[in-house]
Write a structure and sequence with these properties.
Elements: H1 2-14, E1 20-26, E2 37-43, E3 49-56, E4 62-66, E5 71-76, E6 79-84, E7 90-95, E8 101-105, E9 108-113, E10 116-120, E11 127-132, E12 139-142, E13 148-152, E14 157-161, E15 167-172, E16 182-185, E17 192-198, E18 205-211, E19 221-225, E20 235-239, E21 242-248, E22 254-260, E23 267-272, E24 279-286, H2 290-309
Helix pairs in contact: 1-2
């Protein structure tokens, strides 16, 4: 009965066009982590846990989703491996070189390592240099208008560029502690971005937000979340109507926070993720295909059935 109920919830969620499937990386990069790295799946609306994709013994450096193709790209070691989001099957694997960050934007896969940003063919892995920056790229994000942001977390430097790589605004995000920030675009407010990260003491999460123009220029507003809301920021990703934050509550619980568009608008979901051992990056599948939920539901039902037999 439990298997059937969970499968029904899964399929019902698949019928909602505004549904978000949230993926959370669980890294084996330290002795506190799981035996193998995993990507956990959560229903962004109900918070229901939908099982995991096992990704091997290497730590997950970053992940990115191609919602249209129902695939998640996982960067680890010197490779990028592509998994079917619903079944967890490996679709392909290609050598990429060391990678800090990957993103899929406007249908294109990108990766960054050191000061270099590359575009990557999603089938063959063939790469082309997009930009060599003056600093190491620790995170980046593309707007719908083709402009993009490069971020160096050591210096808290955020710089905008137009689609041709010409620099626009350069900004120092001094409210965020060194090596703590991540940047993402709002899923609903076109070209609006959020740069978030903890301050040095990890008791307050700071944010810088703005709208990136096609010329790579932006103005910034700054604010803070109190430690009662989030207390150890990990990552941020866009949703249908805003974005998700991932971190810890003041009680130490690992949790996703679903926020409305606009940084001061608050949110409507607090999703605990106790299945995660060593929290990593998050990615959001926007309006997954119903087939994804059928595959996820069948997989979870089979897992529960095996557990019952034991």
């Amino acid at each position: 009965m439990r298997s059937i109920a969970l499968l029904s919830l899964t399929l019902a969620a698949g019928a909602q066009a505004s549904f978000d499937l949230v993926l959370v990386a669980d890294n084996s990069g330290n002795f506190a982590g799981p035996t193998t790295s995993k990507i956990h799946r959560y229903d962004g609306d109900s918070g229901v846990y939908l099982g995991f994709i096992e990704t091997g013994f290497s730590s997950i450096n970053d992940l990115a989703v191609d919602s249209a193709a129902n695939e998640v790209y996982v960067a680890s070691s010197n490779h990028i491996t592509v998994y079917n989001i619903g079944t967890g099957a490996v679709n392909r694997n290609f050598s990429s070189g060391l990678t800090n960050t990957i993103r899929i934007a406007n249908g294109q896969l990108y990766r960054a390592y050191g000061p270099s940003l590359y575009s990557v063919n999603k089938t063959t892995g063939t790469q082309a240099l997009v930009k060599t920056w003056t600093s190491n790229i620790t995170d980046f994000a593309f707007a719908q208008n083709g402009a993009y942001l490069l971020y160096n977390s050591a210096a808290n430097s955020l710089v905008g560029f137009n689609s041709a790589g010409v620099q626009g605004t350069s900004y120092s995000a001094g409210s965020i502690g060194p090596n703590k920030g991540r940047v993402a675009f709002d899923g609903s407010l076109t070209n609006n971005f959020y740069l978030m990260g903890d301050q040095d003491a990890n008791t307050t999460t700071a944010f810088h937000s703005g709208a990136l123009s096609a010329a790579g220029t932006f103005a910034v507003s700054t604010g803070f979340w109190s430690n009662s809301f989030v207390n150890s920021f990990v990552d941020i990703a866009g949703s249908h109507n805003g974005y998700y934050m991932y971190g810890k509550s003041n009680a130490g619980d690992k949790a996703l926070y679903r926020m409305f568009s606009g940084i001061a608008q608050g949110g409507d979901r607090f999703i605990l993720t106790p299945q995660v051992t060593a929290p990593g990056q998050i990615a959001v599948v926007l309006a997954p295909e119903p087939g994804t939920f059928i595959a996820v539901g069948v997989g979870v039902a089979a897992l529960l059935k095996r557990r019952k037999r034991r």
